Amino acid sequence: MIVERVKTLKNKRNSPERKFFGTDGIRGRVNAQPMTAETVMRAGMAAGRYFTRGEHRHRVVIGKDTRLSGYMLEPALTAGFISVGMDVILFGPVPTPAVAMLTRSMRADLGVMLSASHNCYEDNGIKLFGPDGYKLSDAVEAEIEGLMASAFDDDLPDPAHTGRATRLDDVSGRYVEFVKNTVAEGVSLEGLKIVIDCANGAAYKVAPTVLWELGADVIPVAVEPNGLNINDKCGSTHPEVLAAHVVNHSANLGIALDGDADRLVVVDEKGSIIDGDQLLALSATAWQANGKLKGGGIVSTVMSNLGLERYLQTLKLELHRTSVGDRYVVEALRNKGFNVGGEQSGHIVFNDFSTTGDGLIAACQVLAEVVRQQKPASEVFNVFTPVPQVLKSVSFKGSKPLEQADVQKAIQAANKRLDGTGREIVRESGTEPLVRIMAEGEDEALIKGIVEDICTAVEKAA
Fold first, then answer.
1. Omega into 34 within 30° of 0, i.e. cis?
2. Cβ 207 vs Cβ 222: under 8 Å
3. What confidence category does residue 339 fall into, taking pLDDT thresholds of 50, 70 and 90?
4. Is 202 in contact with 95 (CB distance < 8 Å)?
5. Per the residue annotation, which of 69, 115, 117, 345 is the catalytic one?
6. Of 169, 200, 232, which closes a domain?
7. How far apart are CA 100 and CA 184, in angstroms?
């Protein structure tokens, strides 16, 4: 095996000119840059100006999750878009994939989701989708960021040609029907008792509805958002809560979504947590068997377990690896001709149905396989044996922690200790001030020691 190490990505999102955009749009603590009302309004003006082309009446759709700050940022965005002549259609709280789907379905020029995904309520963010429903490229984001620095006094429309704002009332119904239609005809969840943890987030209404209408006995958890409790000891970042509910209710399985419902974690009937790698393996197997798998493999990131790669090889399937981030998975799906991909963290993308990660669609696809196999979830989801893997995150306050001499020395020492028997990956998070350290290999004690050593070096450098 070849030792692999991924340094901080040296691309536009880390370059000095990209002050606001990260790996998944703009994100930060509310009422601090860049998540201030003023900056968000300028982002709306800049994005609106970039996507205003032609003589037609331009429109942008805006969704949000359940964070309290949505009440501040949604009007700021709306004002920005209206000021440059765009009509705004407000969705209210809906999952991110619903915004992506409806951007394309409603022929909008732009789609916007206000969410900081799995982060707590203090943070918020802006995710942008082009008219095709896909997240914007680095290049387009860089151009919008450049426009944000512009003076908007010139070329603004006259008062008669500013935009208007309306609210669409049937967003949830449209999305529920869309998700249900991704399930093969004749598949029913009748007889399954399912716990669904909605993280007090964007899917708190639609997720239980989808599962119930498909026939399941549904036990909803974390479906009482108050603006402050999103992802708070619930959802995909706290799957142990879901596991306890599954066991206590003697459920067949449980599903936890994150704050904007673009990813999921599954728990089997025993309370064991199933990560995205096992869901990808299950999906690849099922889709290959029924002839739906395209591209001769699937797409995942450098973080996916080596055991997944080995398992796919037994099926004569390729694992195409990308940088971390669901947008890079989606780019590879589009460019390489695959139709199944995702991340270990639970972003699963079925490109035949959706242009981005969709926790509910992924849940429906794996639930259909549970129904087909008529076996306990613990057996259905135990597809391959993972190689021992350790992942830890360390917070930092300074800049460029991976360029510190002691951190580099610890990474070099790790390479030497692995000596070709595994992989180690050290990278900065693109959405939070964290360094993520992962190592995997056959010797679990060795990889634990390697991760601890690098964590210690980062902590001292921070």
1. yes
2. no
3. very high
4. yes
5. 117
6. 169
7. 22
pLDDT at position 155 is 81
- Can you tell me the distance from the alpha carbon of 238 to that of 137, in angstroms, rounded to the nearest whole number? 31
Please give the radius of gyration of the chain, using alpha carbons only, rounded to the nearest integer. 22
pLDDT > 70 fraction of the chain, expressed in percent and rounded? 96
- Cβ–Cβ < 8 Å for 202, 66: yes
What is the span of the domain harbouring residue 444? 389-461
As a whole number of Å, the end-to-end CA separation of the chain is 32
Mean pLDDT, residues 319-348 taken together? 94
Beta bridge mates, 299: 320, 341
Which one, of 242, 387, 366, lies nearest residue 303 by Cα? 387
Q: How far apart are CA 125 and CA 27, in angstroms?
A: 4
Measured in residues, the chain has a length of 462
Reading the block at residue 206, the tokens are 């639609």
Within 8 A by CB and 6+ apart from 398, the residues are 461, 462
Residue 71 lies in a domain: yes
pLDDT in tens, 227-248: 999 999 999 999 999 999 999 9
CA-CA-CA-CA dihedral for 425, 429, 434, 440, to nearest 10: -20
For residues 62 and 83, give the distance between their C-alpha atoms in angstroms, rounded to a whole number: 16
59 and 160 inside one domain = yes
Question: What domain count does the chain have?
Answer: 4
Q: Could you report the per-residue pLDDT of 272-309, keeping only the tens digit for each?
A: 999 999 999 999 999 999 999 999 999 999 999 999 99
Tell me whether residue 105 is one of the annotated catalytic residues: no
Q: In angstroms, how far is CA 242 from the centroid of its own chain?
A: 19
Residue 194's contacts (CB-CB under 8 Å, 6 or more residues apart) are 211, 216, 217, 218, 219, 251, 252, 253, 254, 255, 367
The vertex-236 CA angle with 234 and 240, nearest 5°, equals 65
The distance from CA 137 to its chain's CA centroid, rounded to whole angstroms, is 16
Domain stops at, among 315, 346, 380: 380
The distance between the two most distant Cα atoms of the chain, rounded to a whole number of Å, is 69
Whole-number Å distance between alpha carbons of 284 and 303: 18
Is 184 among the domain residues?
no
Do both 309 and 345 map to the same domain? yes
DSSP H helices in 181-275:
206-213, 239-248
Same domain, 159 and 46: yes
Q: Is residue 309 part of a domain?
A: yes
Whether 4 shows a pLDDT value over 60: the answer reads no
Whether 9 has a pLDDT exceeding 60, the answer reads no
Report the percentage of the chain scoring pLDDT > 90. Answer: 77
- Average pLDDT over the chain, rounded to an integer: 92
Mean pLDDT on 117-122: 96
